[in-house]
Design brief:
By secondary structure, this protein is α/β, with parallel strands linked by helices. It has helices at about 20-30, 45-50, 85-110, 115-125, 130-140, 145-155, 170-180, 195-205, 220-235, 265-279, and strands spanning about 5-10, 35, 55-70, 70-75, 165-170, 180-185, 210-215, 240, 265. The protein contains ten helices and nine strands. Bound molecules: adenosine monophosphate (AMP), zinc ion (ZN) and fe (iii) ion (2 copies).
C-alpha cells in the first residue's frame, strides 16, 4: 500500500532537517507523498518540491496556532503561497514572535545566558520558537533535552514562558479558505479536551468551513485514531494524518510512522485532492 505523511516540520520552522533532507528521508522511508507543514511558514515547500523531482509528491501546507479554550492547531493544505492576506498574516505572526522572543532573550540574559536575538535569527532563520531556545539551554548545560527545557522553563507559567498572540479559529480557517486551501483540525486529542468539548470544537470549526480532521497522529492512541475516523465520517469531513515529524527536537517521532502506530494511506490524499479540485 502507498503510504504518505501529511504533517512534517522542517528547519524553516522548528524541525531539525532542511526541506531537501526531509525529501531524502521520505524517499528512504518509502513514502509516496509528504506535506510540508511548518509553523507559520510556507517557504519550505519550494525547496522540498525542487529536491523531490518525480520520486515523491510534495504538498504545500502550513500549521497555525489558534485558540479554543486552549491552544488549537489548524493545518492548511494546497494554499496559494502568493495570496496577499496570507502573506500579510504570516508577516504579522513573525513580528509578534519577534516581540515575544526578545522578551525570552531578556529573561535568559538576566540568568547569565548570553545570546542575542539577532544571533538566534541568523542561526535558526525567520521562525524562531521555544524549541530553539531549548537548544540554547542545552548548549549552556542547563538542561539535557528539549523536553526537559519545556517542562522546566518554557511550558505555560514556567520561568521563561511568554505568551504570544494567536489567530482566532474563525480568522485562521477563513484565511486558509481565502488562499484556496483546505483547513484541517490538527491532532484533536493533543489538547486534552473532554469528548463533549472536542465535539464543540469540531462544531465550531465546521461553522467556519473546516474540511477535515487529522485522525492519525503521533500523539493519538490507536483507539483515539479509530474514534476520530468514525467522527470524521459522521461529520462528512476529510480524514488526514501525519507523524508531526520534527527530527532531533522530538527524537521519538519517526517520519511516516510517528511512535510506530501512524500509517496514512495514499487514498486519503486522493480525497483531499478531489476536494481541492471542487473549491
Ligand atoms: P512556539 O512556536 O515558540 O510557541 O513553540 C511551540 C512549539 O514547540 C510547538 O509547536 C512544538 O513544535 C514544540 N513543542 C511544544 N512542546 C514541546 C516539548 N515538550 N518538546 C519538544 N517540542 C515541543
Ligand atoms: Zn513544531
Ligand atoms: Fe501542532
Ligand atoms: Fe506540527
Amino acid at each position: 500500500m502507498k503510504l504518505i505523511d501529511l504533517h512534517v516540520h522542517t528547519s524553516v520552522s522548528d524541525g531539525s532537517y532542511s526541506p531537501s533532507e526531509i525529501v531524502t528521508l521520505a524517499e528512504n522511508t518509502g513514502l509516496s507523498a509528504i506535506a510540508i507543514t511548518d509553523h507559520d511558514a510556507i517557504s519550505g515547500y519550494y525547496e522540498a518540491s525542487e529536491a523531490a523531482g518525480k520520486s515523491i509528491e510534495v504538498i504545500p501546507g502550513i500549521e497555525f496556532n489558534t485558540k479554543f479554550k486552549t491552544a488549537v492547531h489548524i493545518l492548511g493544505y494546497y494554499i496559494d503561497p502568493d495570496n496577499r492576506p496570507l502573506k500579510e498574516t504570516i508577516q504579522s505572526i513573525i513580528d509578534d514572535r519577534d516581540i515575544r522572543n526578545e522578551k525570552v532573550v531578556s529573561l535568559m540574559k538576566a540568568d547569565g545566558i548570553n545570546i542575542t536575538y539577532s544571533e538566534m535569527k541568523q542561526r535558526f532563520g525567520e521562525i524562531v520558537g521555544r524549541p530553539h531556545f531549548s537548544e540554547i539551554l542545552i548548549e549552556n548545560g542547563i538542561v539535557s533535552s528539549v523536553d526537559e527545557a519545556f517542562k522546566k522553563y518554557f511550558n505555560k507559567d514556567k520561568k521563561y514562558w511568554v505568551p504570544r498572540t494567536t489567530l482566532s479559529i474563525e480568522t485562521c480557517i477563513s484565511l486558509i479558505l481565502g488562499a484556496g486551501g483546505i483547513p484541517v483540525i490538527a491532532h484533536p486529542f493533543e489538547y486534552n479536551l473532554e469528548k463533549v468539548t472536542l465535539n464543540d470544537l469540531i462544531s465550531e470549526c465546521i461553522k467556519y468551513g473546516v474540511m477535515g480532521i487529522e485522525c492519525r497522529h503521533s500523539s493519538h492512541t490507536p483507539g483515539q485514531m479509530a474514534y476520530l475516523e468514525n467522527l470524521a465520517d459522521d461529520y462528512g469531513l476529510l480524514k488526514t494524518g501525519g507523524s508531526d515529524f520534527h527530527g532531533t527536537i522530538k527524537p521519538d517521532i519517526k517520519l511516516g510512522s510517528g511512535k510506530g502506530s501512524v500509517s496514512v494511506p495514499y487514498a486519503w490524499l486522493e480525497k483531499l485532492k478531489n476536494e481541492k479540485e471542487r473549491i
